[in-house]
Amino acid sequence: MEQPVKPPLLSPEAAAKVPAHPQHESHDGPYILAYILLAVFTLIEVLFTYSTFAKIVLVIILLVLAGTKATLVAAFYMHLRYEKRFLAFVFGGPVLLGAICVLALQQLILR
Amino acid sequence: MAHEIASNLPAAVPGQEMAHAPDVAEHAAGHAEHGGLAHKLRGLENRKLGIWLFLCSEIMFFTVLIGTNQMARWKDPGPHEVLNIPLTALNTFILLTSSFTVVWALSGLQQGNRKKFLRALLLSILFGAMFVGIQAFEYTNLSHDGFVLNANLYSSSFFVLTGFHGSHVIIGLIWLTRLFIKGFNGSYSAENYEEFELAGLYWHFVDIVWIVLFVIVYLI
After folding, report:
1. CB B39 within 8 Å of CB B45
2. B95 Cβ contact partners less than 8 Å away, ≥ 6 residues apart
């Protein structure tokens, strides 16, 4: 029995922008670049941990790096960059709320 | 399509068929005209919106656990020095790699490259299993140092937080393994990849959570 063809999940506008979709044509550059950046940022994070920076400077740098890495994964691997802006707002709301909660609690660590 | 939907509906009260059937057919035809609005909201397919909303609820879940961990650290700094940063950094790198291989597999599927899809997916499963294995090894080492679930408030929050993340990885592994078996049997193609895309979204989210946990729990 023939498998039913389901409609693609990406909207037509998003599908047009996603790097890899034409048959036998590879556009994996953004994925590789994101992976290299993620690996480099992870290495920088670990190196910073052994540095002698003031605690507050260290916390700010590490949180910025973690935020950048999370954004890279969401934007490129989860294709949020190519999706409708509505979806970014849906996902961005709880992320912002969670980030505020976590940042507010950092003052306890810095005491 | 409209007639198909109308014909699948249960028969209405005798004498009212004529009144209802055209309405239903008209309604369904309206949906078809608007690109199947019954399955979309703002141009987003329902299952995709559903998994994004699920991930939003997961953000709040992990925020609470992270907050508890932060509070516990304040009350009882505990043996933070016991945590093995180099080993966890390696584990972070492994999970990041698995995320890359998942998107690599999706790319292979979209290109109609079955070999690339299956190889990348198998690598993702292996990397995910390695992550869980290293986490189990870390837990064993910590327990040898007396850092166990009920040692203090900090250790409890540490194990609950990282344990819940680990359980998410295991669920993701089971999901990916199922998709690998289905993919191996030829269930997916360049036109039929949405199920794998949904699993990928979940896997990448688990990766994002670990990116945050690694910094907040281990490095800060």
Report:
1. yes
2. B127, B128, B131, B169, B206, B207, B210
Q: Is some CB atom of chain A closer than 8 A to the CB atom of B115?
A: no
Interface with B, mutate which of A6, A48, A77, A111 (most B CBs under 10 A):
A77
CB contact under 8 A, B219 and A49: yes
Residue of A27, A62, A102 with shortest CB distance to B219 = A62
Summary mean pLDDT of chain B: 84
Q: What is the ipTM of this complex?
A: 0.79
Between CA B218 and CA B213 the distance in angstroms is 7
pTM of the full predicted structure? 0.80
Could you tell me which residues come within 8 angstroms of residue A93 by beta carbon, excluding any fewer than 6 positions away?
B56
Q: Are A84 and B44 in contact (CB under 8 A)?
A: yes
Give the H or E element holding residue B40. Answer: strand B40-41
